Amino acid sequence: MPDFDAVITKIDGYIQELIKKMVEARLKRIDASKKILSLMDQYMGKRSYQFRLGDVYDPMVKAESNTIKHADVERPTIKLNYVKPAINLYYNSEAIPVPEIPDFIFETWTPTEPAYNPEQFQSDIIFEYLKKGTAFKFPIDVNVEESPDFQDSFSKFYYPTEWSKGTSAFTYTWTSPPRLTWFDSILEPKDFQAQYFLAGVRIITIAGTQYKLAFLVFVGTITFRQYTGGGSTWIYEENTMTPTLLCEFTVNTTQVESVVFWGREIRRGTTEDNGWYYRNAILCVSGEQVLFADGEWFRTFTG
């Protein structure tokens, strides 16, 4: 029979030896750190330093002397511009030309100033990517005097040239809300609490007359009524809240077709309001699902 007590004693000895070596290794690391700090204090303690805003992916304040400099590490950027050349499709031996559509344009954004709070950083990101990814869309045969920023065989596109942002505290309540499908539920917007706004404007000229195109994005929180399927009945839940972009597309011409942004499109409104046509949209993400709905709800832009 094996002597279990002797085995246990042997294992305890190994454990004690292992703990001893771990403690010794930790003490050596602490001693090494102490010596490094002593050397830094010896050689650098009496020097003067200048402070500057550098980059280690994001902006960071760095302390430097005249002889000791820090290298900046910039965040990798990517810029894509996809252009599909014209090709032909064939049906019953007849060639059908497919036009070139250079519409896939993407460029990352790197902040140039430190973000001091999450809300500011969120605002900056949305604002910068809206500027890079928003365009007003016209049919190709509309005679706009300004040259388009880019075009394909069907449409031409114009970027907003005037951008602004600011705080915007208001509440919008739906009287005839749209309904959005979310997995096995129906979400019905109740109200929207705005925090700040972003706005892009472009003036274009058609037949000697200038027209104004405006795209406003209100950033805030939306409250939904949620209806979940439960057999033959609906289970009702109030006050489901999620961060949301509430958009407004307002123009004073019927020649423009839509505004496109982030892979979404809001078509021009059909109801005339004192010379303006407007349309709104909800864009939010909930449970990794993008929710989008549009309609004619309100107009804030007056030109």
Topology summary:
Elements: H1 4-44, E1 50-64, E2 73-74, E3 79-82, E4 87-91, E5 94-98, E6 104-107, H2 118-133, E7 134-139, E8 150-151, E9 155-158, E10 162-167, E11 171-173, E12 180-182, E13 185-206, E14 209-230, E15 233-251, E16 258-261, E17 264-267, E18 272-273, E19 276-286, E20 289-295
Parallel strand pairs: 1-2
Antiparallel strand pairs: 3-6, 4-5, 7-9, 7-16, 8-9, 10-13, 11-13, 12-13, 13-14, 14-15, 15-19, 16-17, 18-19, 19-20
Give structural attributes.
five-stranded antiparallel beta sheet, 303 residues, 20 strands, 50% strand, nine-stranded antiparallel beta sheet
Describe what you observe in this structure.
The chain has helices spanning 4-44, 118-133, and strands at residues 50-64, 73-74, 79-82, 87-91, 94-98, 104-107, 134-139, 150-151, 155-158, 162-167, 171-173, 180-182, 185-206, 209-230, 233-251, 258-261, 264-267, 272-273, 276-286, 289-295. The protein has a domain at 118-295. The protein has 303 residues and is α+β, with helices and mostly antiparallel strands. The radius of gyration is 30 Å and the shape is extended. The strands form 5 sheets. Strands 10, 11, 12, 13, 14, 15, 18, 19 and 20 form a 9-stranded antiparallel beta sheet that branches. Strands 8-9-7-16-17 form a 5-stranded antiparallel beta sheet. The model has no long low-confidence stretch (mean pLDDT 79). The protein contains 2 helices and 20 strands. A hairpin with a 3-residue loop joins β8 (150-151) and β9 (155-158).
